[in-house]
Amino acid sequence: MDSVGSVVRCGTGAGVVDDSRERRDRFALAGGLIDFAQQRRDPPLPESAATGRIGEMKHKKGDVFDESELFDDPLTSKLTRRLTRTRDFNQTPTYHLNTAFSADNRFLVMAAWDVDGDSYLFKSELETGRTTVLAALDRESGERFDGNNVSMIQANGWVATNTGTKLHLCHLDTFEEKVLLDLGGTKQTFGHPVGSIDGKTVFIPRHSNAVVPNETVDVTTTHLEVDIDTGSMTELFEDVGRGCNHVVPNPVDPDLLLIDRDMPPAFAHGGDKGRTTRVWVLNRKCGDITEIRPQDQHRFQVHSNWNCRGDRVFYHGTSAEGGHYIGAADVTGRTVFERRYGEYHYGHMCTHPCEDVMITDGLFTANQVIKIHYTDLDLHGAPRLEVLARHDTDWTPRQQQCHPHCHVSRDGRWLSYNRGIGGKRSDVYIVQIR
Q: Residue 24: helix, strand or coil by DSSP?
């Protein structure tokens, strides 16, 4: 392990990390040893990563490498590990509950790719920073791994991905790969995949055609449930005239799915200017849908999620009165909390797997991860806010890989986020928050 300034680098390439480095690394994670900087000091980019060329950066299935480094979060002083330093883009799954960390709290899954198209599926070991290549897609395949379309299925170790036209699975431990569905030769497209809580099936929205905000006139979304063992498919719900990319299974009730119902003309980018509610609960057994209508008159919620108990839907949106609102409703759609704020920054409604709190990577600030204790209110009804980390992402490119999309491990110990740098690259970080 070599030290540059006060940033501790834990590896630079492929191969097995030496035992002495690992022992010191584990001790560092346990508490002391390293004098960390109070300001973020990322190392200079390798030329190949900065320009998008791959060459020697090409990975193969089964490769193991460690390019991680440890430092102190500049705001909270919490121990932080930067997991990635090369390739153009590295990105965790989108912000859905329980879709990034493994069930045993050992690994974080992510996608990585270069601008010329080669892409990879990784798992990174949290304690050591060692990263293993689960799968690789050459640019010539026409398919690509990207973080938004990756989802860890905690119940069985499969990682579900939408690679473009294929619903593709790869196993975290065995590296087995298989394709469940293939839309090749059709105009249909997939949304984001997600596994059921029992690990038997994958839920994924299928669109009749590509949805382009303010261009697409009509679309039908069919919500599919696909058996992992047999590949058999069930159509759960057909939503005519609406789009959907996000499906979030309830963490307790296997029959409830949180879905978006995106109206034209803007679809996921604002729907019908807020006249219609975006977030609904779908019962996969009977096909009933329940509206999660905010009290605010601007009903297009930007993002939503379940709480850890599965009895609350978290959401946020821009307010008809200016600024933004955050809220929570029960599964019947009854509002249990909603609060408007005068100033708004783009961000996401993330969540926590073992605490009944909201987590956001924006909304209040541009660069902090904040825990929202929505049940702990002051005399004026404002919830207590707790800063967890500073992510310092560059939001300006508006690229999804630059969005922090925070996750928390099932034991509540680790927080992950993506950090974008000038639209030219993004990296993945983890923070030890407990």
A: helix
How many whole angstroms separate alpha carbon 64 and alpha carbon 66? Answer: 7
Q: Domain extents for the chain?
A: 66-432
How far is the C-alpha of 1 from the C-alpha of 232, rounded, in Å? 49
pLDDT reported for residue 394 = 96
The span from the CA of 77 to the CA of 387, in Å, is 11
C-alpha triplet 66, 27, 420: angle, nearest 5°:
40
- From residue 305, alpha-carbon distances to 43, 82, 139, 147 in Å are 35, 26, 33, 18
Q: Which amino acid is at 134?
A: L
| pLDDT attached to residue 11 | 55
β-pairing verdict for 425-432 and 79-82: antiparallel
217: its two tokens: 């006139």
Question: Rounded to an integer, what distance in angstroms lies between the CA atom of residue 204 and that of residue 259?
Answer: 10
According to CATH, the topology of domain 66-432 is Methylamine Dehydrogenase; Chain H (2.130.10)
Q: What pLDDT is stored for residue 117 in this prediction? A: 79
Q: Are 383 and 356 in contact (CB under 8 A)?
A: no
| The pLDDT of residue 12 | 42
pLDDT in tens, 283-341: 999 999 999 999 999 999 999 999 999 999 999 999 999 999 999 999 999 999 999 99
Question: Which parts of the chain sit beneath pLDDT 70?
Answer: 1-57
